[in-house]
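Researcher: Let's do a round of design. I'm pasting the structure tokens now; please hold your answer until I've finished.
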């Protein structure tokens, strides 16, 4: 029932609409037009104003024609750069860009698939539950759309986000993450005339970093320091350094332990350099970036997806990943979101691609999920 030609054409049309983070308005207007023509009630929240964008999260509601709990389908409208003026190439069943930009399958493939599923439902007069479609903004720059989403606009307590690669997998576990900023305050002095009168913030930073274990801590925990900024000239003892990093773990306890260790290591290094009563001084800022996702295998969202996959002859595998997605934010709000794959590969690179057969497979699974849910086969 999936119309491969229509799916391909719509995907190409969507990726040709520029929609870098905070610039999603044009693609949102196109999606609104399509969804309204299908009979959806479309609305927006106010997230765009809160994140400084030109568009907000889009919500489209379909009433359904059976008595069932509402279910949501979600994808994000923004892409990473370089994502302006995308030129699509389609050869041997695979979509690519011309090599000067990303393709935008992350996550335009999700948008096209969700629209195709709804088209098929209406064309074939298939029974379906109440469906709430959520197209978010600014996912690529810190899940900002989901973080500022007005959750009062939806009634669904579970659903699916199409934002992964494997069309035969569902993400059930993803880590929580903390953003960590360390500011080191030292004292400037002439590096040739009176270096002993200065307090070298870079030296403090280097001593602390040398004591840290970075990278993979264990199978469920990682940490990284990714940005260091400090100093203004080679002949001045640097009086300030800022370091930014992160810690991630599937265990909340481990996340706290790793985060505390990073902060304490910098504090200890500063103490060993004390010459001035107040310098060097450490300021540590820790912010939770997103909570973890941990969906039970017996949750309805998982059982429903597995039943649908089984109907299609697919063994749907549970996936544990190391990255965050809108699903993490939803989960933190008490809303369960299983993450499904669309087949996109090499995302965030100029080599990004996606096969139409994988998009078809993803659409078939989502369609079957809605059919199984409408039939009330899973409680």
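Researcher: That's everything. Go ahead.
Model: Designed sequence:
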């Amino acid at each position: 029932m999936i119309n491969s030609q229509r799916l391909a054409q719509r995907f190409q049309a969507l990726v040709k609409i520029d929609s870098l983070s905070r610039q999603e308005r044009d693609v949102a207007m196109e999606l609104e037009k399509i969804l309204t023509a299908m009979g959806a009630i479309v609305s927006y929240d106010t997230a765009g104003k809160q994140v400084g964008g030109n568009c907000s999260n889009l919500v489209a509601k379909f009433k359904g024609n059976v008595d069932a709990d509402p279910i949501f389908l979600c994808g994000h409208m923004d892409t990473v750069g370089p994502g302006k003026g995308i030129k699509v190439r389609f050869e041997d069943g695979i979509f690519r860009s011309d090599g000067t930009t990303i393709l935008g399958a992350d996550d335009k493939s999700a948008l096209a698939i969700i629209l195709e599923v709804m088209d098929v439902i209406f064309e074939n007069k298939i029974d379906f539950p109440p469906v709430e479609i959520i197209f978010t903004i600014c996912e690529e720059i810190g899940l900002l759309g989901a973080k500022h989403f007005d959750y009062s606009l939806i009634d669904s307590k579970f659903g699916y986000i199409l934002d992964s690669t494997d069309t035969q997998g569902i993400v059930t576990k993803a880590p929580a993450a903390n953003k960590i900023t360390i500011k080191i305050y030292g004292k400037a002095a002439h590096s040739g005339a009176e270096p002993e009168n200065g307090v070298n913030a870079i030296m403090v930073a280097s001593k602390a970093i040398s004591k840290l274990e970075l990278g993979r801590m264990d199978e469920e925990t990682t940490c990284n320091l990714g940005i260091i900024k400090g100093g203004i000239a080679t002949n001045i003892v640097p009086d300030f350094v800022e370091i930014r990093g992160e810690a991630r773990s599937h265990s909340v306890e481990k996340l706290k332990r790793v985060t505390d260790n990073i902060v304490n290591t910098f504090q200890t290094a500063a103490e060993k350099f004390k010459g001035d009563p107040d310098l060097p001084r450490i300021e540590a800022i820790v912010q939770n970036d997103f909570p973890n996702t941990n969906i039970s295998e017996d949750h309805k969202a998982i059982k429903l997806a597995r039943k649908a996959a089984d109907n299609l002859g697919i063994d749907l595998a549970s996936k544990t990943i190391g990255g965050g997605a809108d699903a993490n934010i939803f989960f933190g709000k008490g809303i369960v979101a299983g993450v499904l794959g669309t087949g996109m590969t090499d995302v965030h690179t100029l080599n990004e691609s996606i096969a139409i057969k994988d998009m078809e497979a993803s659409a078939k699974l989502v369609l079957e999920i809605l059919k199984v849910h409408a039939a009330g086969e899973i409680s």
